[in-house]
Amino acid sequence: MPLPASPSRSPMHTRTVAYHGFRREDGLWDIEAELTDTKPFELGLYRPKPLPAGAPVHHLAIRLTLDDEFVVRDIVSALDATPFGECAQAGPPLAGLVGARVASGWRKAIDEAIGGTRGCTHLRELLANMATVAFQTIPAGQARLRQLAGEPEPVSDRPPFHVGGCITWDANGPTVQRHYPQFVGWEPLRRAR
Questions:
Q1: For 53, what's the count of Cα atoms within 13 Å in the CB-facing half-sphere?
Q2: CA-CA distances (angstroms) from residue 4 to 1, 7, 16, 111, 136?
Q3: Which DSSP state fits 90?
Q4: Do the beta carbons of residue 140 and residue 160 sit within 8 Å?
Q5: Rounded to two decimals, what is the model's pTM?
Q6: CA of 171: how far to CAs of 18, 117, 152, 154, 175, in Å?
Q7: DSSP H helical segments within the chain, as ranges?
Q8: pLDDT at residue 144 above 70?
Q9: Is it the case that residue 192 has pLDDT exceeding 80?
């Protein structure tokens, strides 16, 4: 269903973000993110020479290399278009994420490594959402590899990570009832405080 009609308007900004997940020959996983910002008009803000209409204000990319346990093995970035020369300093601190796990605590790890003036707002935004792409890529990729090898799905006494994570996967809802009836009503263990 498309959005409802809007009053007459003029475009001012376009941000395009794309994420991709890959399985590597060496058994690791690459999660890539790319962000491009453009304006439909010439931009002179903060510039001695105006940026032409449609030229990227930002063109940034990140590649996370993860293992099967979602641990960051490598991270690289490309800052091909940035509004300021100082933005290039945002790449090297990303190395502080090597060894972090893309799981609970991922956003905290991002903030510790590149939060505030240690990093780039846009790279932080990309990294935060790369977790979702990793969870869309790795478990489905692992299941596909097992299927191709003729291996059965593993049996677990715990529900998949997504159960309880949104309205559709409510442990008391119809989707869990249909697909994981053994986990209807499941609640995670609560930590003692």
A1: 5
A2: 9, 10, 21, 37, 30
A3: G
A4: no
A5: 0.88
A6: 31, 40, 24, 20, 8
A7: 106-114, 121-148, 174-179
A8: yes
A9: no
pLDDT single digits (tens) 24-60: 999 999 999 999 999 999 999 888 889 999 999 999 9
Closest CA to 72 of 28, 34, 42: 28
Residue 175 neighbours by CB distance under 10 Å: 15
- The answer to whether residues 178 and 169 touch, using CB atoms and an 8 Å cutoff, is no
Which residue carries 């510790």 as its tokens?
112
Residues 6+ apart with CB under 8 A from 181: none
Q: What is the pLDDT of residues 57-110, one digit of tens each?
A: 999 999 999 999 999 999 999 999 999 999 999 999 999 999 999 999 999 999
CB–CB of 76/63 below 8 Å? Answer: yes
- Tokens representing 187? 């609640």
Report residue 140 as tokens. Answer: 């489905």
Give me the DSSP letters along 91-122.
Answer: SGGGGGGTT-BSSTTHHHHHHHHH-GGGS-HH
CB neighbourhood size of 124 (10 A) = 19
DSSP 150: T
Residues 6+ apart with CB under 8 A from 159: 171, 176, 180, 183, 186
